Every structure is written in structure tokens, then in C-alpha cells.
Amino acid sequence: MQILYPFAGSIQQYNEHHADHSHRPCSCAMCGAQKPLRAHGFYWRTVADAGFDGAIRVARYLCLACRRTISLLPEFVLPYLRFAIAVIGLFLKARLLDRKTLKKAAMAAGDSHMPYQRGQQWICRFCSQAAVLSAALVALTRPPAAPDFVTRALTMLETIGWVPAHRFLFDRLRVHLLGWPAFLAPDGRGRGL
Ligand SMILES: [Zn+2]
Fold first, then answer.
1. pLDDT tens digit string along 97-112?
2. What's the 172 CA to ligand 1 centre distance in angstroms?
3. 3-class DSSP state for residue 97?
């Protein structure tokens, strides 16, 4: 299972100073055991944003009570997506709120060579998730008058900030900004991930 590591710096700063075991959780998010988890290695995952395209190290911990592993994912990325939240947010806002063309939306996200399919996939996933997001984010901001869920969810995300919204959705509700892949629905827990 993945839990969030609140981190406000850049990806480079994370890689240089924070990709270690110094933020060991003191309880287990899976079984609730109130004992510090044991450091259990790392895994590598790729991340891309406007200024970085490479791999980051994610710390993994083992709960000695339930023998399951928990990894501490920095909050600038979404589980199972290579691109940082900032890039996805800029693209979706430009395309769906500001009504820019796919190409211009990709440029707004700092990736003028974005393949058509990738942008379409983000749009598709976000649109399917918009009603869930609109309902959940009411806890953080007043819902605006909007003609549809997509506009409403995007306006709320822009007001709150994409990363703070993700922190709330993921930490409290186990909601994924773009929806969990089917094998992890509905709460991203899967089998011991
Ligand atoms: Zn446990």
C-alpha cells in the first residue's frame, strides 16, 4: 500500500535529501498497529515534469504485525502515473477549463511533444472521476456554480491547489485524482501494495 510523504520542494531536492528512511511511519496504515514500521528497502519509479525526467527512490517499510509493506510516495506524484501532478493539472486546466487545443494545452503543461493519446487518456480519466472529486472537495472549498462536474471539479482544484487537494483526497479518502486502475479500485489498497 502507498501512503503520502508530504513534501513541498522540487523533485531534485527530494532525490538529493529526502529519498531515505528518515520518515519512518510510527503506525501501520493497513492493520493499525501502533508500532514503528521497519525500513524495508526502496523501489525506483519514473517521474517527469517540466524540469525533470528520470527516476526517484521511494522508501518502503514493513509492518511487523501484519507483515505487509507500505511505501512512502512523495505527494508531487500520483500512484501509477509517470507525470507529476503539476503537469497533469496544467494540461487539464488548459484543455478543459480554458478550452485550449490539445497542442496548446500540452504546451501550457511544458510538454509540446506530448503524444495525443496521453493527453486524451488523462482527459478521459479525469472526466470519469469529476463527479467524485466535486463531491469530495466540498470539504475544502465551496462548490462553484458550474455547468457540469468537469468544470466544477477543475475550478475547485484550482482554488485549493492540485497537490493540497490530492493530499486530502488520497490521505483521508483514498481517492485518486484520475481514478484508480480497475485492479486497485475502489481505494487503491490492492493486495499488500
Ligand atoms: Zn500492519
1. 999 999 999 999 998 8
2. 18
3. helix
